[in-house]
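hey so u asked for the seq, here:
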Amino acid sequence: RVKMSAEEILMCAVELGKNFCLYFDELECDALCKEKTLHRVLRNVNSQLLVVRPDLNVAAFEDVTDQEMQSGKGMHFSIHCYKTTTPLAGMPVAFSVQVEDKSYYMCCERECGETIVRFKEGEVPKEIPGESNIIFFKKTFTSCCSKAFKFEYSMERGMFLAFEEEGYLRKLTLKKLSKDEVDETMKISL
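ran it, structure tokens below
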């Protein structure tokens, strides 16, 4: 600390390392910290709700009756918003859902060279020290559509949550988005 004209100013110690790289001591580490949780249903462009069925190992957008929605099994999501010490492309969020008396969180895993969206039993952490396969960046879908969003997977830039027709299901998946493309399968309303 340095005293200047009766005002204290916090100074950070720095050191030069190899190749004259600049290092700061005593700075806050990069970490994601849970800030707030929103409770929402997730709808696709067809107004279908995302429903998680862990017993079948599937998450898909479905037409849901009012009565089914009241029971809410696997369709009322908690969206955990994180704050971070580094500026990122969108708000970092994680998803969880209650099914019966168990909590499941959304994550992505590599399988046969492909990234798959999964729901695993457990809770999302309050703090995430580094990269995580449960974090997605929430972004507005388009500049003229501020009430709908797209969610980019934090560990594979350009890959977004989307739905894909698989038989009679509109299954939750990750999909690559080219820079200037607008893909309605990625549009999610909260």
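The mean pLDDT is 84. Residues 47 and 63 are 8 Å apart (CA to CA).
lmk if thats what u needed
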